Amino acid sequence: MTIVMPFRGTVKGLQSVFNKKESSGVSADSKYKTDEGKRSGTAPSKPSGTLKKNYVQSIGGNPDFKLSYLKFQVPKHIEVMHTQKLINVCDKAEGNSFYRSTQMQICSLNATISRGKERRNSAQSETVVPPPGKIEFQSVTTDSVILSWGVPKGLKGPKIFRVMWSKGGWSNARKLEAVPSPRHPTAKVHLDATAVSLKRSQGKEMQAIRTEEYSDLEPETEYITNVKSSEPNTVVPPPGKITFSSVDINSLVLSWELPKGLKGPKNFIVKWTKGEWIHGRELEGYSVVKDAHQFEINDLELGQRYIFSVATDKDGNLSEWVENFVFTAVPAPRLLTKTHSEASAVTLKWTKGENMEGIKHQFIITLKSPGKERVAIQTKECFKTISNLEPGTEYTIEVSTMLIDRCSEPVSTTILTEACFRKVLSKMGLEDYYDDKLTLSTVLEINQIDTSESKLESPKSYPEAFLRKLMMLNANARSVKCVSKDVDTDKQNTINPLDLITALFLCSDGFLQQDMVVKMALCQFAVPLLMPNHDTREITMMLWAMREIVRTFSPSKLAFRNLSCEERIVLTDIPLLSFVRLGRTSLSKSQVLNKLLSNTKECYDIFYNRNMEGGDVPRKISEGLVEMTWYLPCGKKNTDKFTEPLAVANLRGDIRDFDKQFSFLCQTSAAVYIFCDESEMDYFKDLEGMVVEARLLLISSIQGKSFTLKTMTIKPSLKTTTVSQRKNTESELVKALQESVPKMLGNCPVKVSLANLADTARRCDILVDEDIDECQGVRKNADNIIQHIANTSMFKEKQLPSQGHIWKQLSLLETEYWRLRNAGNENIEDYRKSLKITEKDLKTHQQRLEIRAAMLRFFHGVASEVQRYYFLKWLEMDLDNLSRNELSDLKDRYKELREKCPEDTEKIAEIDQKISARSLRLEHFFRECGQLFQCANHLPEFSSQRKTLEQLPELCAQMLLDGFPLELVDGDAANIPLKWITEVLRELHKSMHSKSKLKVITIIGAENSGKSTLLNTMFGVRFAVSKGTCTRGAFIHLINVNEHVRRKLECDCIMIIDTEGLKPNQIVQDDHSDERDIEVASLAVALSDATIVSVSSDNSKEKDLLEMVLHAFTRLKNVGKKPLCHFVDTNMSESPAVERKKRGKELVKQLNEVIRKDTRMRKAKITKCSDVMEFDRDTFSWYMPPVWNGTPPMAPFSVDYSETAHALKKRLIGDLKKCQGRGDLMQFISDVDRFWKGL
């Protein structure tokens, strides 16, 4: 291709630029487009490798011009005579293509040049050179163009022009300096070569000196040309420093400071190349930037060094070039996850960075840990197992892509190597309990903590401290910390409470786990749903552990009627919301959940979080734990955040590390909320094959500074939709979630019960705790009993006949035998003989009753020592579920009458009888055992049935040791089955190896005053408490005394007796059942060493209650008992010690006033309360705060109540030290018989 240019006038420089980029054109600028060519040779091609040089000598004479150019930094010169008409430049070197970076210059010579010496026209003239005129294209073909331009105005004499042209930017520029023509300057450029012909207007060509040919330009391609004067240049100020505000893998944004002192519109020339500025190397790009000093460049190669030059362009004059270089980014690896972790090794995997397929590269892995030097590892694979790590150490692991000598930004993750599991247990003093599990009876033992002040001195004391507080329902149980003056020692001793809880669950048997979960739920602690075991690598769903949770709440359908329901949580269909995180987030997910789930006026720490004591300590064995809690409405609009119940699960750790847990939650939840950073979004591309039933919602952030709620779908393709505006604070995010949850549940009302999720867990390769043989083997026995119960009253009459009408009649005859209330004028001996005859007939009838099918199944269930406890728990829970369904309305009615119409005692008593008749609990089966045992001696001595019945006391004694309560006084018959109780306690004495010295603590007091709740809180026991019901009769619990404090207390165990509440102003009944409560209270006081008297906060009944209490104590004068006594006011607000002391004095005064007015007491020569009880005037009166810290069911158990109960417990233990030692269980049996008959 050739360009022919006519010349007119003398110009020292001429530049023509052909640029593929479109331009609007300026003075002396023009653009053209080549014709489409179809003939061969028009397509671009690389230079050939042949060497072609053609030198033609000048036609004599001295040279008038010198043509100079650089080839690969080597200067070249050609001398040109004025008479020469054609300069043809051609130079092809094998393998090189220098034309794109070749610079040429033509200088006028005004002296003879010989032997290499020359003299130039001064090139440093400061004269302003006028530019050429407008460029015009005379001819454009497929391979050439002819352009011309106007002669500069006002410039006389010879003129030289520089022509430059390029395709695709300045990087391809070629230059020619031409001799002048007398008229129009013209040039013909062959587009397939660099051959340049210079013609005069006459059309006569000069002799060619040198020829060089290339094929380069393309058809149908637009080029830009520019012609300007080149010398002398106006001094143009250069741009300021070049900076790079954004650098990506294939694009960047550069900017530069504006030139100083230059006003008006500013244009800049930007050029760049890859690698180094080497002469002859092709430019990557060239561009003109108008009125801006920022430029974005795309389509760069990743991981390459680019040099950028910027010059100011002022009216065609260029400033000096300003340079800077930058490396384009190397794509970072993606989806870095931990696939396996052990105590000393971890396996990681990741995927290649974007656009890295087919590019040879490696990866650099860097390990960092506190106090250690960085370690770098190189690999070519997208996975790596790193060994020789330290157990229980937190490592930050970074992976970078390495391309030749450049590395990408690292992608990082933080992992905690699994501390040697047994080592962690050993640190907490639990190593012996991993195989031989902790039991409830061990935890409830009376030990040094109960008898003296103690401080936490090492992590080995954490488990006991936590369990002690938890058993007493102290909501501060998780805040355990050693007392140490040494800061370093204190740090070493710190354990994350979640690790402590995990360790305790893994070291406890199934029944202690149940008790822990129940109490954690009452404290509003999240409870474990999926428990990881880093020793066996197994995950277990804690279904059995949660089966005992029963909660009362008021959903919208009941709230408007001011009603509530009591439900066993694992059987209740509730929508499940799960909250997980991807990567690390600046926001505490657990703290957000706490604020979301706490009621309007209260905020509770349901989920332990980093802002709590020890919450910032790295977790070692609890990563992968899934905790669960429930939001349960109370039915009050100004309190409830949500009107319907919902379950909430929280996964501890990164979902990339816990595939099973995340998969389980995605299949079982109504919605899964995922906390993540925008930079982590690539992870979700790998979820397309996962089973996802839940709606996915993202809580995405940008470097943790703001948050946006989005919905996400992964099928058929990944898609996100923003559903909330960006939130800048945690409070704004909580509010957005509070609005999101009801909408989401309204659109997707998926409800599930935990019991039904077990199958999903098994499919996800997650164990279920109740799948063990000893648990499932006896479940059928319990189910076989329950499935035959259609009507509880009828069932008791048909299947449990021995405790029914006959037993109640026998109880009345026994009472009448001693009290002789109906003897009238009849001879006492004859009357008692008649009673004995009637009693014998009733017993004969009772003995003839056959053992029914339900009891045979019961015997079968309790026969196995291994399975007994599971059977009893299954039966207890199933019976409770059954009774709850039948008694719910009656209990609501009973509660309503007691609150609104307490004076309607007749109606209250009627409903109470109905509740009693329809109730069916575990104690009814043991009552039947007692009655059958008392009739066993009529059976043949060696019969199998007799043998079975004679084993029942031993089984019941073991039940007492396992933590079940034993009914001492039958609340329905108002009697004690003495033979049965005697044998049970005798077997208990044997089981304790005759070490059964005991002391007794009893509670009596007002009905529904929280007596059972107080005992449960103080001692961690499980006396029955339920909505709308009260204890009937008396029950006992046995607590072991640790061998280290037995000598101080002078006993081996402590017996706790819970009694039926005293009910003033009862209606007199023909069967004298109205006296049952006072008789039971009198017996309990007679058997006790220390007595708690619970006084209701209802002042209207206080006088009547105190009178009943004093009567109970008065009856003991004849048996020589005078127990220590503490009075407890329930549901009282906190009051100062002075106020409590004043209350104590008033109480003594009231008691003495009751005695003074009571005739029976005066006859018994009782003049003051100290005649029947012992007490410390300064400490015997206690105020119990309200049980709940807020509004149930979302309120936690009150810490004040728990701590007051603990203080009372320690006082009682101190009192027992002062009490005179009494006998063992055998002596207690004798006392029961003696006191009951005496009463």
UniProtKB/TrEMBL annotation:
Record-linked InterPro entries: FN3_dom, FN3_sf, G_VLIG_dom, Ig-like_fold, P-loop_NTPase, URGCP, VLIG_GTPase
Molecular function terms from GO: GTP binding
Domain (Fibronectin type-III): residue spans on this chain: 238-332
Coiled coil found in the keyword field: yes
SMART domains noted in UniProt: FN3
Listed Basic and acidic residues bias regions: 30-39
Record-linked PROSITE patterns: FN3, G_VLIG
Sections of the chain in a coiled coil: 880-907
Residue ranges occupied by any VLIG-type G domain in the UniProt entry: 995-1237
Keywords: Coiled coil
Family as reported in the entry's similarity comment: Belongs to the TRAFAC class dynamin-like GTPase superfamily. Very large inducible GTPase (VLIG) family.
PANTHER family in the record: GTP-BINDING, UP-REGULATOR OF CELL PROLIFERATION-LIKE
Name this polypeptide is given: Up-regulator of cell proliferation
Organism in which the protein naturally occurs: Dissostichus eleginoides
